[in-house]
Description:
By secondary structure, this protein is mainly α. The protein has two domains: about 60 residues, no CATH class; about 45 residues, no CATH class. Helix content is about 35%, strand content about 0%. The longest helix is centred in the middle third of the chain and has 14 residues. It is globular. About 5% of the residues are buried.
Amino acid sequence: MAGSHWLWEIISLLQQRSSTPSETENKYQTFLETSSHEILEGLKQPRLMSTHLMHKELPAEMMKCQVIVPIRHPKDVAVSLYHHLSSEKRGTNLRCGWDRFIDELWFSDQLSETHSSVSQLQV
């Protein structure tokens, strides 16, 4: 989900009542997709978890919690994704211009497919 890292950082600072990030908290340990149930259960309460899953893909028990869903302007998301994919050292390795990215990827069905389709889009 676009904005989940940014939102996690802000809420973490608010929970800590601090303006500097915690040295002990690791946002990557709080991702639902990559962390074990034991790690998530072991987080101090109130728990702050993050995910890139869509709201409808969340486990049913998550609906008993407070869920904050960031909504960003699609143009902002497109620019952010383009820069993220262009600067990635491994994985997608996107090597194309902005116009081609928008025309052939953003406004096509390729984004909903795997990253392999993104890596095929090159200059």
